[in-house]
Specification:
The complex is a heterodimer. By secondary structure, chain A is mainly α. Chain A is about 60% helix and about 0% strand. In chain A, α2 packs across α5 and α3 packs antiparallel against α5. The longest helix of chain A has 17 residues. Classes of the chains: A mainly alpha, B alpha/beta. Chains A and B meet through α1, α2 and α4 of A and α1, α10, β22, β23 and α11 of B. The complex binds flavin-adenine dinucleotide.
């Protein structure tokens, strides 16, 4: 009984997962991981710069430059390499348009 | 998750979801497990209720971010302590750079700014079938989804002669608060020319660089106040996190490797402590049972998931909690999510930043699941700073993604402070990190 139910449930889960879009992580999902160092909603209370409201093209360029080791950094050059250019663009948009 | 094909993901998520889906038999088969249609997976009608156990790095983040993401969800945070002392920064207290009071966090903002109901109590049990938790003060609290972030517990049977009772006088200081204060007082009271012996634990444990940052901070303290003193590291492991950076730092600041070194490092096997003679403050290590007499002794025992996790069937044979990293839902108990140190988090280390990052992915997934949406593609970061001296910071960072092997670091990204890295600027960012991460959690 339990076994059959488990099988049915497993099939249902697989079906459900099959419908999932395997998109890249969204700007908000990535943006929230930045908050630990840059403050909630990108508003910093320490030496790390605030991100909220910065123009999207500026932020995207800064991060692409970090990724290419074309901008001086302590840690952002290591972190920016973890994302595609599209993801960097999305996260830039997220902070630029944050209310 | 670019190189990650749909087929592989199916395989992975199917396997991870199996146990959780099987658990539907418990809760009356309302629908497919993770990502199930929303209202059907709620225990009650009315607004969904999420209960969070533990107001540390993982739990407090999850509570705050659920409320930020969907203010219609009711969130209750259950945390025993009224003031939480952050382990990050607690080594800086030992270095005399901060007061213990300055690393204390309260739950006022979570309640007043974010509408989290904060209950100071201890959870004594989880009833996954009835979907409620039992409280020490009596009574139960029911949930639609439960998030468990209880941190770590110690394995008291690893070192003969060291136990919870002994830890009151020979502190571990691996949970911050009075343990930290005790160790600081002992260090402050130590004679110049005394010996501080520290015994780091075997893997896996919370904060892999933590014991070595502690060595650095104690060395800094002694250099200022008791320059004839020595530090001996008796390590249960043959190597450690950020080892190259730490040893370079110890050379730069504390004469490491010279005849005059303040710090002596004895790795496993010789450094593996087998017994503590608490009365005489002696650590006995290695096959030859060499004795190390300490003026101040700091023993950090081996670790396992927090008590409530083991008590509630959330742990496997490893002593830690297996989860589906898409949602951080337990693969053993449905509707219960485990984050932070207690969880088996793939390649992510047990750190406060990891717990914070996992909590946000979990919070978003829980909000999605309650609303009948599929959880979004997750993404995580860990950034971990250590101070070797007040103006000497080092770091390790990584970006994590979901792959068929679970949570893995993105290749080509992350890593350590480079050899020519700017140590004094990283020390400033370490302080900034603490300020912002604590504000992101308790602010
Ligand atoms: C010395 C040291 C230095 C560190 N430095 C860093 C650093 O620089 N950077 C970093 O990222 N990480 C650091 N860490 C690691 C970090 O502290 C942990 O990884 C982090 O606290 C894990 O978060 P958590 O939510 O899993 O557990 P915790 O933060 O420990 O929170 C668990 C909470 O749950 C509560 N609780 C448990 N069970 C119950 C129950 N049954 N009922 C009610 N409440 C309960 C506890 O009271 C506790 O408050 C350090 C750790 C140490 C020891």
């Amino acid at each position: 009984m339990t076994k059959t139910l488990a099988k049915i449930a497993l099939a249902a889960t697989a079906l459900l997962v099959a419908q999932m879009a395997l998109a890249e992580a969204g700007g908000a999902m990535i943006g929230r991981t930045c908050n630990g160092c840059h403050g909630t909603d990108g508003v910093s209370k320490g030496a790390a710069p605030s991100l909220k409201g910065l123009p999207a093209d500026y932020l995207a360029k800064a991060m692409k430059d970090f990724k290419a080791d074309a901008r001086p950094a302590t840690i952002m050059n290591r972190i920016a390499k973890g994302y595609s250019d599209a993801e960097l663009g999305a996260v830039a948009q997220y902070f630029a348009t944050m209310k | 998750m670019s190189e990650f094909t749909r087929r592989k993901f199916l395989k992975f998520a199917g396997a991870a979801g199996a146990a959780s889906a099987a658990g539907l038999t418990l809760s009356g088969c309302e629908g497919p497990g993770a990502g199930a249609s929303a209202k059907s997976s709620q225990a009650s009608t009315g607004p969904a209720h999420v209960v969070v156990i533990g107001g540390g790095f993982g739990g407090a983040t999850a509570a705050k971010y659920i409320r930020k993401l969907d203010p219609s969800v009711k969130v209750t945070l259950i945390e025993k302590a009224k003031t939480y002392y952050t382990c990050p920064g607690s080594n800086w207290v030992l270095g005399g750079m901060r007061t213990i009071a300055s690393i204390g966090q309260t739950y006022d903002s979570l309640a007043s700014k974010h509408g989290v109901k904060v209950v100071h109590d201890w959870v004594t049990g989880i009833d996954a079938e009835k979907r409620h938790v039992a409280l020490e003060s009596g009574g139960h609290m029911s949930y639609d989804r439960l998030i468990v972030s209880p941190g770590i517990d110690f394995k008291w049977d690893g070192i003969e002669g060291y136990n919870e009772e002994v830890s009151k006088t020979i502190p571990h200081a691996w949970k911050a608060g009075h343990q930290t204060a005790t160790l600081y007082q002992q260090l402050a009271g130590m004679r110049d020319g005394g010996t501080f012996v520290i015994c780091p634990p075997p893997n896996p444990f919370r904060c892999p660089p933590g014991p070595y940052e502690r060595v650095s901070m104690v060395a800094h303290f002694m250099k200022q106040h008791k320059p004839k003193s020595k530090i001996i590291i008796l390590d249960a492991k043959p190597k450690f996190s950020k080892q190259g950076l730490f040893t370079q730092g110890w050379k730069d600041l504390y004469g490491f490797g010279t005849d005059n070194s303040m710090i002596e490092y004895i790795p496993s096997p010789n450094g593996k402590v087998v017994r503590i003679d608490a009365k005489n403050r002696v650590a006995i290590a290695g096959d030859l049972e060499e004795e190390y007499k300490a003026d101040v002794l700091n023993v950090i025992p081996a670790q396992k998931a927090g008590w409530i996790a083991a008590h509630s069937g959330l742990t496997n044979e490893s002593g830690w909690c297996p989860v589906n990293p898409l949602t951080w839902e337990s693969t053993l108990v449905p509707h219960v999510h485990v984050i932070g140190d207690s969880s088996i988090a793939g390649k992510m280390p047990k750190s406060g930043y990891s717990a914070n990052s996992q909590a946000k992915v979990c919070a978003a997934a829980v909000v999605d699941m309650l609303a009948g949406r599929e959880p979004g593609t997750p993404s995580w970061v860990n950034t971990c700073y250590s101070l070797v001296g007040p103006n000497y910071g080092i770091s390790v960072a990584a970006v994590y993604t979901l792959s068929e092997a679970g949570v893995v670091g993105v290749k080509g990204a992350g890593g350590l402070t480079p050899a020519d890295g700017n140590r004094s600027l990283e020390a400033i960012y370490a302080d900034s990190w603490w300020t912002n991460v604590t504000d992101d959690i308790w602010g």
